[in-house]
Amino acid sequence: MHYYLVTGAAGFIGSETSRMLLERGDSVLGLDSMNNYYDVRLKEHRLESLKRYPAFSFIEAEVEDAEKVHAIFQNSERFTAVYHLAARAGVRYSVARPDLYAASNLCGVINVMESMRSHDVQKIVLASTSSLYADERMPFNEEAATNKPRSPYAASKKAAETMAYAYHHLHGLDISILRYFTVYGPAGRPDMAPLRFVRWIDEGHPITMYGDGTQGRDFTYVSDIARGTVLAEKKLGYEIINLGHGTQPVELREFISVIEDILGKKAVIDEKPFIAADMKDTWADITKAKSLLDWEPKVKLYAGLEKTVSWYRDNYYWIKEVKF
């Protein structure tokens, strides 16, 4: 049995990654700040599902608190590896509060890697983002230039990647950096389009859509993303790897059309100007993930959205109260 630290364990990807580790018989110590960037009831819902596993334990703490992070390593058994998935997410909010993103997304990474170095933990899987590929040629390849971030969020993730390389170079940490593309699925974040659109279409509220709907996204189902994350524990040295669906981007208006079909309802769309901090399109080149991790996504868009809608309907009694 292995013992893992998963930061951001109550988050969308972190909870699913934790579940997969627990399902295969490993032990997980989850860490999450439980902050109120979005309605904490979603995090509590994910956390409750993990607490059913006897091999799961949980600590509420912020990764930017160096003392608390160090104490976790000091007071725990030696971790097999760290899945560092905790981060401040969201492009638009980062424009208003870049200080929060620098503290969590950069200083938090430093705190975790310093504690790893002090306690002889060699492997970290670090969450990054496709937002770094702004203005690059599609499909986005890991070798593309990523030195022109459009938002503080993207800039903080780029800073974390380069800091991680310094720790690999100086201290020999084995680091897998995963650039996630647009993730959707049950218990998703309410600040992201998939869950918002499902609820708004179902309730007959207008969908706020920034742009004309022709912008495309590489939508990837959460279980596929978590499976790739778990596989990235293997010894790789220092690698940056895309995790996305890898097919032609799905236009937002097509994505809405699929939800309409599953719900049997039509969307009311309130079109707003495109936001400069957003990316027009995303599309992952997943050649490296196939080669290094023997990974590729399995869940098709329609099936993934059916599962998302099913979860939404099963949990509507409390989802209807969540602020979107």
UniProtKB/TrEMBL annotation:
It holds the Pfam family Epimerase. The keyword Mitochondrion does not apply. It comes from the Bacteria. InterPro entries: Epimerase_deHydtase (IPR001509), NAD(P)-bd_dom_sf (IPR036291). Residues 5-244 form the NAD-dependent epimerase/dehydratase domain. SUPFAM superfamilies: NAD(P)-binding Rossmann-fold domains. Keywords: NAD. Transmembrane segments: none annotated. Gene3D superfamilies: NAD(P)-binding Rossmann-like Domain, UDP-galactose 4-epimerase, domain 1. This is SDR family NAD(P)-dependent oxidoreductase.
